[in-house]
Write a structure and sequence with these properties.
The chain is α/β, with parallel strands linked by helices. It has two domains: about 1-25 and about 240-429, Alpha-beta prism (UDP-n-acetylglucosamine1-carboxyvinyl-transferase, Chain), CATH 3.65.10.10; about 30-240, UDP-n-acetylglucosamine1-carboxyvinyl-transferase, Chain (Alpha-beta prism). About 30% of the residues lie in helices and about 25% in strands. The protein contains 14 helices and 24 strands. It has helices at about 30-35, 55-65, 90-95, 105-110, 130-140, 170-185, 200-210, 245-255, 270-280, 320-325, 345-350, 380-395, 405-410, 415-420; strands spanning about 5-10, 20-25, 45-50, 70-75, 75-80, 115, 145, 150-155, 165, 190, 215, 220-225, 235-240, 255-265, 285, 290-295, 300, 305, 330-335, 355-360, 365-370, 375-380, 400, 425-429. Strands 17, 18, 19, 20 and 21 form a five-stranded mixed beta sheet that branches. The protein has a four-stranded mixed beta sheet with strand order 22-23-1-24. Helix 10 links the parallel strand 18 and strand 19 (about 330-335). Helix 1 (about 30-35) runs parallel beside helix 7 and helix 8 runs parallel beside helix 12 (about 380-395). The longest helix is centred in the middle third of the chain and has 14 residues, at about 245-255. It starts with 5 loop residues before the first strand and ends with a strand. The mean pLDDT is about 95. Uridine-diphosphate-2(N-acetylglucosaminyl) butyric acid binds next to helix 1, helix 5, helix 6 and helix 12. Pathway: Cell wall biogenesis; peptidoglycan biosynthesis.
Length: about 425
């Protein structure tokens, strides 16, 4: 079923006329973890550059349920008071809608010795198991019981015991979850084959700044020395720029810019995208914190992409980039290696006129350039939703993008940012 709100977008029919600035918001996948980490603090956590998005609101509700007092001081600025964490039951209702709720379990288990939670929900992008989370807690000494609607994990009376955990697949939220649990465990925990994503590093650096001892951030072996509750007094976590939002804006600009400047970003977190775009012939002017695209673009060269853990090409940019591939000369092969069924959105891109051959749940071939036509589409997830918005902007005629709820989960008032550079986009009830 379609959700209530939709975007109505009038396409540019391939014209390159967008101009102005797109400001990168704070990273959803960084701030959500720092919010969860508040449970590790004996006093307070202060945050800045927090994006005003649905997932942040849901995470704050979950924290309030657990006893955190949330104060919003000015837009994007929060103070969380964490002196009285009094519940270890994570709301079933909310976490079924928020995959990232799983990162509350590690800190909660460390702090209160118990965490009860359902299988988390989130975007519909195929099977998203939590077996690493369950196995990891057991190796930290906890016991697991399954009740009707939830899992209950309980630490030994004297707390979690540091251990060595090897991830058979690199996992962002699992690395973060155990890193946080281990901050309050006894002794040393070593995480092997850990995730290297900038969001993991940013979380670890903030925890270290507040009294944790975590070594090896940004490498595949992270060592955590367990200790006391952390203190956030006098510290502020400034959310790092959202590399996926910036990357999506850059792809949009590659297709449509007369002169677009993507600001407040970290191009050094986007090496894989920048490499791919340059190899397609896109001209980018890159500084430490911005990317500019201007002038007439020559035709784009087709390119093969394979998603990979950081610093490889991010799965979250696969769908937005695919829209650019529909406009490239020749055939481009997409190999999605991280998630199953993250190619379903291609059905609608094909209905819009792209030449798409889906080979299996992980692989597809796009042949371009194709003229896209406006259509009515429904976002299956956040990142595919963005791809539809980009496709609608370059298409001819009008498109309607349903399920804007998914887009709101990760983008703050996207339509306003896009209107400011000249996109004809309206949010309609
Ligand atoms: N996996 C397991 N078992 C587990 C956990 C993961 O098999 O217990 C598998 C997954 O099925 C997947 C692979 O491991 O095949 C990697 O998944 P990962 O755990 O890294 O994904 P995640 O932590 O659930 C985060 C982001 C995603 C992003 C991925 C990959 C958050 C809240 N989410 O998810 O972001 O796609 O890492 O980079 O940080 C999004 O923002 O739209 C989004 C989906």
């Amino acid at each position: 079923m379609f959700e209530e709100e939709k975007f109505v977008i009038k396409g540019l029919e391939g014209k390159r006329c967008l101009s102005g600035e797109l400001k990168t918001p704070g990273a959803k996948n960084a701030v959500l973890k720092v919010l969860a980490a508040a449970l590790l603090f004996k006093d307070e956590v202060n945050l800045a550059n927090v994006p005003d998005i649905e997932d942040v609101s849901r995470m704050l509700e979950l924290l309030e349920d657990l006893g955190v007092v949330v104060e919003k001081n000015s837009p994007g600025t929060y103070r969380l008071i964490t002196t009285d964490i009094n519940s270890s039951d994570i709301s079933v209702e909310i976490s079924k809608r928020l995959r990232a709720s799983i990162v509350l379990t590690g800190p909660l288990l460390g702090r209160l010795g118990r965490a009860a939670f359902p299988h988390p929900g989130g975007c519909v992008i195929g099977k998203r198991p939590i077996d690493f989370t369950l196995e990891g807690f057991i190796s930290l000494g906890a016991s697991l019981t399954e009740e009707t609607e939830c899992y209950v994990i309980t630490a030994p009376v004297d707390g979690l015991q540091g251990t060595e955990i090897f991830f058979k697949t690199q996992s962002v939220t699992s690395t973060e979850n155990f890193m946080m649990a281990a901050v309050l465990a006894r002794g040393k925990t070593i995480l092997k084959n850990s995730a290297l994503e900038p969001e993991v590093v940013s979380l670890g650096e903030f925890l270290n700044d507040c009294g944790a001892r975590i070594e090896g951030l940004g490498t595949s072996t992270i060592t955590i020395y367990g200790g006391e509750l952390l203190s956030g007094q006098g510290k502020v976590y400034v959310t790092i720029p959202d590399r996926i939002a910036a990357g999506s804006f850059i792809v949009l600009a590659a297709l449509t810019a007369e002169d677009v400047l993507v600001t407040d970003c970290r191009p050094d977190h986007l090496d894989a995208l920048i490499y791919i775009l340059r190899s397609m012939g896109v001209q980018l002017e890159v500084t430490d914190s911005s990317v500019r695209i201007r002038g007439r673009q020559p035709t784009f060269k087709a390119v093969d992409i394979k998603t990979h853990e950081y610093p490889g090409f991010p799965t979250d940019l696969q769908a937005p980039l695919a829209v650019l591939l529909t406009q490239s000369e020749g055939s481009s092969f997409i190999f999605e290696t991280i998630f199953e069924n993250r190619l379903q959105y291609l059905d609608s891109i094909s209905r819009m006129g792209a030449e798409v051959k889906v080979i299996d749940a992980h692989r597809a071939l796009l042949t371009g350039p194709s003229k896209l036509e406006g259509k009515e589409v429904a976002s299956p997830d956040l990142r595919a939703g963005l791809a539809y918005v980009i496709a609608a902007i370059i298409a001819s005629g009008e498109s309607v993008v349903h399920n804007v709820y998914y887009i709101d989960r990760g983008y703050e008032r996207l339509e306003e940012s896009l209107q400011a550079i000249g996109v004809d986009i309206k949010r309609v009830q």
